[in-house]
Amino acid sequence: METSTFVYDGDCAFCTTCAEFIERRIPTTARVVPWQFTDLDALGLTVAECEEAVQWVGADGARAAGPDAIAKLLADSGLVWRIAGAGLRFPPVRAGAWPVYRWVARNRHRLPGGTAACALPQEARERLYGPAGRPTTGA
């Protein structure tokens, strides 16, 4: 793989708005692509992984998801963004970033730019949050 890839949910208007912000404002060398139009097998990703969180596949094959993927994207960007990425990797910040990311993912259809199509599929919601809607353990 010659370049890193940041993969998001192209069916979600909120996610697409965020991806457009990245393309306009964050000077990254990574490809920013919706998973629906990407060869997931070539990237070593599954649909389930892409439904649950944004994904990063580095040029070296290293993978990350959710806020860890965002930190990798920022680390691949201009100086100010690299500093933000380093902050996101700082252990106490990273520990708090996952619950915030999961909340955003669970409520993305309610956020600015979100639509009903942004709601996670039931199977993905249950994998992430359990049948009662509470977060499951682990990252």
From TrEMBL:
<protein>
    <submittedName>
        <fullName>Putative DCC family thiol-disulfide oxidoreductase YuxK</fullName>
    </submittedName>
</protein>
<dbReference type="InterPro" id="IPR007263">
    <property type="entry name" value="DCC1-like"/>
</dbReference>
<dbReference type="GO" id="GO:0015035">
    <property type="term" value="F:protein-disulfide reductase activity"/>
</dbReference>
<dbReference type="Pfam" id="PF04134">
    <property type="entry name" value="DCC1-like"/>
</dbReference>
